[in-house]
Every structure is written in structure tokens, then in C-alpha cells.
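C-alpha cells as discussed.
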């Protein structure tokens, strides 16, 4: 598949996944199309030779794996980890606000988004809703396809310093999103419930609770003189999920005989400290149960872990020529110049000299260039699922990512060739 076709598939993947719950549902469809079977944690597992399986936890984290023919104790697991969530705005439990003749929707900040990028965008809602059903309370995905929300900018005449001081928004008073003109004859305190009920074709009284993500309705696109770049929301980190999934579902991976694992977690952007986050028990639980189904002893399972290797895949900061002061001078990573190995002496990233050497070798085998990134010493460095997962399981781990611009904006962008190269390296790893 050409690089442009790979990125078109990525853009479709993201456009179909406006929330972490939708990202898992989209991933699930792709897995099932290649013969992967769902396992439920509450049931007893029985694994077939050369079997393909996946497990979901709470609808927004998912782990997929193949049962290899290799000796798990001697060869270990090959794992790629990423995350399904992105920073943004989430709807409050009682969000309806009538103010100044308008109906607004109250939101709170999830993670660390660039709030100014939500201004003047065509916004809508997606996520999951719990509703009353004959069998009790059930979860339903919801996505409102048309723009129903907006955060209009204040005119420059009322904010004359916006171009010198930047757009600053008070999270409590200036982030509520415009929904409608308030009707003085109507009680609009349950307007959102009515919208959700209509979307799901249920009674408003059936709506119990929700987790709703505000998303930008503009679809992904190519740009640049030669379509060498692409833009969309949630590249951090659905681009990494798509690259890992594409590699897992490749013919080379499925025929490799290895125990290949893709683990996509929710809640990375808020620290991963949850039952379905990377710092929770999800991945250890799945790997332990997999080993138990193969009748491995605890000691042999631990030996298998010691022979395993993990790639923590999360997007990287590309050099921005307009802001050279923001980068470590000798560590400029460039778009369309290959995947980036991320390094930090304080273990904000899990890479060390041994794991990065192994990834470099994978790149050489795949015929792909690689880059190395270190953050400016006088700026705080972000982190990934790499260090916590490596610590919990005792896995040798490397942190890598495709270079991108505008990380945590509602409209991020990256390079077409980089996504293709990342898939090639991941496929080499799983092969």
C-alpha cells in the first residue's frame, strides 16, 4: 500500500473515532474483519493454536493478541502500546446553562488541550450514554454528526491585545459552548438529555448518564504542495494506534508464529491511574491469563517477560521553524524524516541505550530512517505509557513516535511518509 493510501486509511480511522469509545469500536471492527475473536474478562478463556483474540475493558481500552507457535518462555511477547484518548473538553453531568438569552453547554477540561484552538470551530458531541433497557442499564455509543456547538471568539475590538498576549480563556466562565437561542417559554434545563434521547431513539426518561467528548466535525485532509502532510484531530495518539493495528493485521505478522500484542489504553492524557489505564491491571491481567491458558508456570511466564520487548508508541514533537527557541538545538526532528526515538534521563520516556539500539536495528532491517529526540532541559518534558508499563511488567521498552506539529491542538498535523515508515518498522517488529 502506498504512503498516501496508508494515511487515507488513517484519516478514515480517526474520522470514524471521535471519542475513545468510538476508537475502540473502530478497532474492534478491523480486528474482527481479520478473524479476531472477543474474549470477555468475566468468562473462562480457552485459546486455540494460532488463535487471534481481543479483550475490551470498559469500552475504551482494548488489547489484541495472536497465539504464536513459538516458545513463549524463550521468545517472549512482542508488544506495542498506545492510547485511545486525546485532550479536549468533556460535558458536565448537569451542563445546561441559560445565560444572556442563549442556551449554553457546560464543559470541563480533560487533559491538557490547547484551548484557543477550540474557538470558531464546528463542534459536536460523541461518546457513550447509559440508558434504561429491559435487561437493566446498557451502554450505547452516540455521535451527533452535525455541528451543534461553537465557541465564538470575542471580537478584537473588545480584546485588542489578543494578538500580542494570546487568547486566554477562563475555564469556568468562558468555555461554556453556545448551543441554541434560549426559549423563554420553555424549560431548557434538560436540553442535552432531549438531544441524546432523540439521537438514540429512546425516551428522555431512559437516559441515565453519559461520558461525552466535544469533537471537531471537520474531517481529516492532506495538505502541502505535494500532499506530503496531513491534518486531523486526535493524531495524538490515534495515529500510533492505527500504525500498530496495521502492523498487527499485516500478513507478515499473522503468519509470523510470534506472540504479538497491541495494547491501546484510555486515560493516558490524565495520568493512566485507572482500572483501564496503562498504570492499571489490564495488560498484566491479559498476559497472565494468556500464559495460564498455555499451562505455563509462574516461573516460565516470568522468564517469558524477561525475553519480551515493548514499543511504547506516542507522537513526537517535530521541529517548528517559526519557533526555534522551543527546541534542544542538537535534537531537531523533522517531519517526513522517519520515526523518532524519545529519550529522557529522568525516565519520562522508557528508552535506554539497549532498547533504542534494538529499535535502530529494526529500522535498519525495515529500510527506514530514524531520529532521536531530547526535550529542552529548561522545559518540562511530557511522558507516555512507556515508563509505567515497563515498570509494572519488567519489560525492556523503547519510546518512539512519529513527528508532528501542534500537539494537543484540536487540529494537529504530521507527515505522510512518517506514518508509512512507522507501519513498516512495526510490521518488521511483528514479523
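Sequence:
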Amino acid at each position: 500500500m502506498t504512503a498516501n493510501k496508508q494515511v487515507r486509511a488513517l484519516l478514515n480511522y480517526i474520522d470514524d473515532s471521535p471519542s475513545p469509545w468510538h476508537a475502540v469500536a473502530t478497532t474492534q471492527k478491523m480486528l474482527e474483519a481479520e478473524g479476531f475473536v472477543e474474549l470477555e474478562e468475566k468468562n473462562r478463556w480457552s485459546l486455540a493454536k494460532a488463535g487471534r483474540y481481543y479483550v475490551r475493558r470498559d469500552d475504551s481500552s482494548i488489547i489484541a493478541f495472536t497465539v504464536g507457535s513459538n516458545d513463549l518462555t524463550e521468545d517472549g511477547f512482542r508488544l506495542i502500546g498506545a492510547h485511545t484518548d486525546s485532550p479536549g473538553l468533556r460535558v458536565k453531568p448537569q451542563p445546561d446553562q441559560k445565560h444572556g438569552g442563549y442556551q449554553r453547554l457546560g464543559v470541563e477540561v480533560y487533559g491538557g488541550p490547547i484551548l484557543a484552538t477550540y474557538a470558531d470551530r464546528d463542534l459536536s458531541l460523541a461518546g457513550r450514554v447509559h440508558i434504561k433497557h429491559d435487561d437493566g442499564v446498557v451502554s450505547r455509543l452516540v455521535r451527533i454528526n452535525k455541528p451543534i456547538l461553537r465557541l465564538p471568539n470575542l471580537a478584537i475590538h473588545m480584546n485588542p491585545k489578543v494578538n500580542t498576549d494570546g487568547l486566554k480563556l477562563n475555564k469556568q466562565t468562558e468555555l461554556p459552548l453556545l448551543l441554541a437561542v434560549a426559549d423563554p417559554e420553555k424549560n431548557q434545563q434538560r436540553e442535552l438529555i432531549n438531544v441524546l434521547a432523540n439521537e438514540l431513539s429512546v425516551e428522555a426518561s431512559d437516559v441515565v448518564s453519559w461520558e461525552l467528548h466535544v469533537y471537531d466535525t471537520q474531517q481529516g485532509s492532506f495538505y502541502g504542495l505535494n500532499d506530503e502532510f496531513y491534518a486531523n484531530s486526535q493524531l495524538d495518539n490515534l495515529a500510533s494506534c492505527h500504525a500498530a493495528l496495521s502492523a498487527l493485521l499485516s500478513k507478515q505478522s499473522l503468519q509470523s508464529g510470534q506472540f504479538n500484542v497491541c495494547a491501546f489504553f484510555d486515560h493516558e492524557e490524565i495520568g493512566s491511574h485507572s482500572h483501564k489505564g496503562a498504570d492499571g491491571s489490564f495488560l498484566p491481567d491479559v498476559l497472565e491469563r494468556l500464559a495460564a491458558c498455555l499451562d505455563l508456570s509462574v516461573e516460565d511466564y516470568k522468564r517469558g517477560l524477561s525475553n519480551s520487548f515493548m514499543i511504547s508508541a506516542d507522537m513526537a514533537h517535530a521541529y517548528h521553524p517559526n519557533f526555534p527557541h522551543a527546541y534542544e538545538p542538537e535534537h531537531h526532528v523533522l517531519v517526513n524524516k522517519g520515526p523518532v526515538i524519545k529519550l529522557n534521563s529522568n525516565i519520562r520516556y522508557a528508552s535506554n541505550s539497549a532498547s533504542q539500539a534494538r529499535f535502530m536495528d529494526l529500522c535498519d532491517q525495515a529500510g527506514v530512517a530514524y531520529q532521536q529526540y531530547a526535550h529542552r532541559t529548561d522545559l518540562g518534558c511530557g511522558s507516555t505509557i512507556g515508563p509505567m508499563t515497563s515498570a509494572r511488567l519488567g519489560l525492556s521498552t523503547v519510546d518512539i513516535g512519529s513527528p508532528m506539529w501542534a500537539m494537543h491542538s484540536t487540529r494537529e498535523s504530521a507527515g505522510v511518509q512518517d506514518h508509512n515508515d512507522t507501519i513498516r518498522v512495526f510490521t518488521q517488529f511483528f514479523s
